[in-house]
Amino acid sequence: MRSYNPDLTPSWKKPKPVPEIPADRDLVVEEVATGFCGAVIRCEAGTVTLEDRFGKHRVFPMEPRGFLLEGRVVTLVRPVAAPARPTRTASGSVAVPGARARVARAGRIYVEGRHDAELVERVWGDDLRIEGVVVEYLEGVDDLPSIVADFAPAPDARLGVLVDHLVPGSKESRIAAQVTSPDVLVVGHPYIDVWEAVKPSSVGIRAWPRVPRGQDWKTGVCRALGWPHDNTGAAWQHILSRVTSYKDLEPELLGRVEELIDFVTAP
């Protein structure tokens, strides 16, 4: 049977709680027992090192109620390390912490579909906001000539277009030739779909499957990989979740997107 030992100390005799203060560097405190006063220069393994105004160092345990801060008794605790800020964006550009998005330019970048737009945002989103570049998707390139005509590109409103499977002799290459001009740049990658521009190793597969002509490519890929083939949207979200930086993408896509950003932001 456990014994019961109630605390019979009168409440007026119990020590009052004191603030817990992070031992941040340069915080000036006084150690209660010795009266040593100095600035915090180091905090580790339950101890704090103080430096007084003469440059003398003393190490003290961070005991409860062990220090005075501006005359008040406090308990020093180890400070919480601030999370390191990324120095690079997902595209590999130098990060600009706290940078505000620029007002959108008149120029635009068009991509074929929603998946293309989501991938570009995933990797280049920070850069595009700083540059004020808006990315929109077309849902295919068949109507690109009329879309370009409606956009009315100009030197101060350039249009860049990213096309899937832009290879010689393809339908896409013929359409691109119709709209290319000094103020319109159409570039593309050789892949049937932007899914293929994600490195297989990043997705955890050996290679992207070959799908016979005449079959829906995304459905065929899902079947070959054993993924639910009736929900290609879920498959894409899985693929997109594995992309954390430009290192997860093939060079054939990286170079083309960078080319478009440079084109629409040129003076």
UniProtKB/TrEMBL annotation:
Q: Output the Pfam families linked to this UniProt entry.
A: DUF3097_C (PF11296), DUF3097_N (PF22845)
> Which segments constitute the DUF3097 domain?
20-79, 108-265
Positions of the region Disordered? 1-20
Coiled-coil residues = none
Q: Which domain of life is it from?
A: Bacteria
State the InterPro entries in the record.
DUF3097_C, DUF3097_N
According to UniProt, the name of this protein is DUF3097 domain-containing protein
Organism lineage: Bacteria, Bacillati, Actinomycetota, Actinomycetes, Kitasatosporales
